[in-house]
Amino acid sequence: MTKENKQEFFKYVSLNVLGMVALSLYFVVDTIFIGRALGNNGLAALNFAIPLFGVIHATGLMIGVGGAIKYNVFKSQGQQLKANHVFTSTLVFGVVLSLIFMILGLFFHDNMTSLLGARVGHVTFNMTADYVRVILLFSPLYILHNILVAFIRNDGIPAIAMGGLLTSSVANITFDYLFLFVLPLGMFGAAIASSIGALLGLIPLSMFFILKKNTVTLGPFKGAFKFWPLVITLGLSTFLINFSYSAVMSLFNRLLDGLQGTTAVAAYSIIANLSLLSISVFVGVSQGVQPLLTQAYSKNDADKMRHILALASVLIIALSTVIYTMFWFFGDVIISGFNRDHDLALQALAVEGMNIYFIGLFFAGLNILYSVFFSAIERPRFGLFIVLLRGFVIIIPISIILSRLYGVRGVWFSFLLAEALTLLIAYIVYIFKVKASDIFNNRNYVAPEHPYQHSEL
Q1: How is 391-408 classified by DSSP, letter by letter?
Q2: What pLDDT score does 303 carry?
Q3: Do residues 260 and 349 lie in contact, with contact meaning Cβ atoms separated by under 8 Å?
Q4: What's the whole-model pTM score?
């Protein structure tokens, strides 16, 4: 790998990791503020609501990343008109999905709250419903934000994408403090703060369209829907990475609530948000290298693809080591920052859970990288397979079985075992289905020009 390629790699990765960490840091600070302002009930309510926020976020990422991948392929092949048509198609798709979420927020927010696991009649139900209603009504902001970030990153200007994420995070934290402590608006205020942050994050992103280096413009609206199946296919693994996290969180909430009630759910709220911050680093690395992988794939540069994947793998392992070491030595202090009432049971549950749960980060980071890699080279079926394994097929039965055998500790171990088993299978798929294929051995492979030409789609 040349010096220029390495510089390009670290430019994309560092800026994207910074942006993702900034975005996820908001969730951590949000959890701290809610824990301090509203106590254990607030932490539990937030954890019930966050899976829905994750679904909205995952939807925006799915169509954003899916559309941007095909945009990048067309652009690399010199087909700018088709590339612009994909951009228009993605925006229209985002509008349609946003309307569905808004309807749910207007008429079915209580139903959604019950579906998320909050118990009707419990104090956490109304708190969760307040958050759910606002997030659904302002869903267009989150979806548009994710679409623009994906296309800007794939158009070769990751600094602007990072700026949008950073602006959103800083605004979220600022308004969180204002609406939780200065103007005590409770969970409603926390949700409004998130929405304002998403709105302000669109300002630096919009600056992208006036830059001379920008090549993303609107294409024809006619026939925009024809790219939707392709966008879904290419972005589905990205969606499921995030959706599965929300689904598992909702499942763990129900299991823990049944085992030790609100205290266990509150402990998991702390672990889940710290885990989200850690996972965001791996997502940042993976999404950072996605445009580079797609460019190399479009140009049939197998050597560059191999080097990018190897360098990203080493980086993820190194980052996992740093993250786990930090939480091992300072976990007790970190968790105490969330624990307003100095609840000893909450502290003990969260510390033990962190030490077990976070071992799984070593495997989770590589699983995310492989799933993004498969999508980046237009092998979404393999990426989807990996995501389904780690997000549903393995972890759901393991968590249910281990929770019945070992209680709360079994829930913590289920994440570790699911990620380890998934990585083993992901590596086997990579060795036998991708590394040995024509595309990875430069055997006269040409990336498809027509959106439906590829046999994997």
Answers
A1: IIITHHHHHHHHHHHHTH
A2: 85
A3: yes
A4: 0.70
